[in-house]
TrEMBL record:
Parts forming coiled coils: none
Ranges where the RsmI HTH domain occurs: 248-290
The name this protein goes by in its record: Ribosomal RNA small subunit methyltransferase I
Keyword DNA repair: no
Tagged with keyword Transferase: yes
């Protein structure tokens, strides 16, 4: 589906193709918005935002007039109802730009219900990528980025938070969490208890803003740096992956027996070596021996 050919272009703004445009907005510095995002905000038929005042202010900074266009609030408390209204607009060939208060829509922000409704209605859903606290924190943390898991906000009750961390403790990927400055010291204490000593953490605070700060070290070291005062501002925690667990010969043998039911010796050895992180030559020799017995 494309934009209506007879839709009049606004003065100074190109027409935006029909569909739902998920627009990323700055997490701090207003200049971090992309040129494409500005084009979409200037040319969309309808604007929607998690916080309409924030979007208005951003548009004013960049000289974009609302120009009488509808501006709809879409947040956690009304998303279901507004989604129906917006899908009707999309069905009518309108272009709708939706922006989070800061960062990328759907990433611990509203927008999922709206995007899912648009997909179900068969409307185009397009992303105008840009700022994201998740990616900014990964970039500056100094921890591996080849595999990571974004786990969002941890539960607030202490017991649920500890169970949440226990489920993540053995994950073989860098972990990224968002946390409130009021709870981050308790969170670090739980990390030290559940993940054990030595796990490296980066506490990223106020990314892209004037008081941006990254504290790196173990949970105990970061707690020491923070002292008795809760930090201020938006916080992202980046946590190093768990150390690989040693795999016993019995586990390798059992995995090979299962793989050999449907694979050749070579295929089974490669498959098990990759999944259990053991040397391929060792897995091959074991597989060969098991086929002979």
């Amino acid at each position: 589906m494309t934009g209506s050919a007879d839709r009049p272009a606004r003065v100074g703004a190109a027409a935006v193709p029909a569909g739902l445009h998920l627009v990323s907005t700055p997490i701090g510095a207003a200049r971090d918005i992309t040129l494409r995002a500005l084009d979409i905000l200037a040319g969309a038929d309808v604007l929607a935002a998690e916080d309409t005042r924030t979007l208005r202010h951003l548009m004013e900074i960049h000289g974009i007039a609302l120009g009488g266009r509808p501006l709809l609030a879409v947040h956690d408390h009304n998303e279901q109802g507004v989604a129906a209204k917006i899908t009707a607009l999309l069905a009518g060939g309108k272009s709708v730009a939706y922006a989070s208060e800061a960062g990328t829509p759907l990433i611990s922000d509203p927008g999922f219900v709206l995007a899912r409704a648009a997909v179900a209605a068969g409307a185009p859903v397009l992303a105008a990528p840009g700022a994201s606290a998740l990616l900014a924190a990964l970039a500056v943390a100094g921890l591996p980025t080849d595999r990571f898991l974004f786990a969002g906000f941890p539960p607030q009750p202490a017991g649920e938070r500890k169970r949440f961390l226990q489920d993540l403790a053995g994950v073989q990927a860098t972990l990224v969490l968002y946390e409130s400055p009021r709870r981050v010291r308790r969170m670090l204490a739980d990390l030290a208890e559940i993940f054990g000593p030595g796990r490296q953490v980066a506490l990223c605070r106020e990314l892209t803003k004037r008081h941006e700060e990254v504290l790196r070290g173990t949970p105990e070291e970061i707690l020491s740096l923070l002292g008795e005062q809760d930090p201020k501002g938006e916080i992202v925690l980046v946590i190093d992956r768990a150390a690989p667990q040693a795999v016993g010969a019995a586990e390798v043998a059992a995995a090979l027996d299962e793989a050999l039911r449907s694979m050749s010796v070579k295929e089974a050895a490669t498959f098990v070596a990759q999944n259990l992180k053991v040397p391929r030559r060792e897995a091959y020799q074991m597989a060969l021996a098991r086929t002979k017995t």
